[in-house]
Structures are given as structure tokens and as C-alpha cells.
Amino acid sequence: FVQPGPHGPVVDREVEVEPDGRSLMKAAVDAGIDGIAADCGGNLTCATCHVFIPPEWQAKVGPARGDEDTMLDYTAVERRPNSRLSCQIRLTPDLDGLWVELPERQY
Ligand code: FES
């Protein structure tokens, strides 16, 4: 998880998780990552689990669709083309090494 810093992005935390299909949001919350609020617990109603996917991971992670795409219009920090809601990203073995950028705030 990379956070915005005064002199550019800084690595906040690295988290080891089993690729068991849990969501990126759940992994972040379980690890105590402050930058993910996840108020709704993954029900796609809060948009406080917003992350930015780096270019090298966009193809594997894929774009937001459907309700997630709609909810991305309600993020605290304006969405970008690489925005995703982390509760909708399932951690599978092919995402080994994934890193994401956190927005400046979730509210
Ligand atoms: Fe609420 Fe992702 S945790 S939308």
C-alpha cells in the first residue's frame, strides 16, 4: 500500500496474505491499513475503500464495472481512470505482488 506523501508517494505497508479469494479491502482492514476505511464492510455502499491501481497491474486487476463503477462517482478524492474499490478486488494467486496507491483521504 503506497500513500501520497509531501515529496511524492511513499510505501506505507507491505502485507502478506494468502491468495484465498478474500478482498483487498479485507486484507487491508485485517492488517490495520489506516488509508482504507471500508465503512460498509464490502457491501458496495460506502466508497471508502478507494484505491488506485498502478499501470502494470491494470490489465490483471481489470476495470470497475456495474455498481462499483457507479459507486466510484462518490469517492472523497476524485476518481481516476485507474480507480477501483478494494472490496471488489479478490486476491487470487495471479495477483501475487500487487501493490496499490491509497488516495489522500476516504472522506
Ligand atoms: Fe464499502 Fe467497498 S467497503 S464500498
Description:
By secondary structure, the chain is α+β, with helices and mostly antiparallel strands. It has a single domain (about 1-95), classed as Beta-grasp domain (Ubiquitin-like (UB roll)). About 15% of the residues lie in helices and about 10% in strands. It is built from three helices and four strands. It has helices at about 25-30, 60, 65-70; strands at about 1-5, 10, 50, 85. The strands form two sheets. A two-stranded antiparallel ribbon has the order 1-2. The protein has a two-stranded antiparallel sheet with strand order 3-4. Strand 1 (about 1-5) and strand 2 form a beta hairpin. The model has no long low-confidence stretch (mean pLDDT about 95). The site of FE2/S2 (inorganic) cluster (FES) has 15 residues, from loops.
Basic shape: globular
Question: Major sheet, described briefly?
Answer: 2 strands, antiparallel
The CATH topology corresponds to Ubiquitin-like (UB roll)
Model regions low in confidence, pLDDT < 50 over at least 5 residues = none
Radius of gyration: 13 Å
Q: Would you identify the CATH architecture?
A: Roll
Quick take:
This protein has 107 residues and is of the alpha+beta class. Helix content is 16%, strand content 9%.
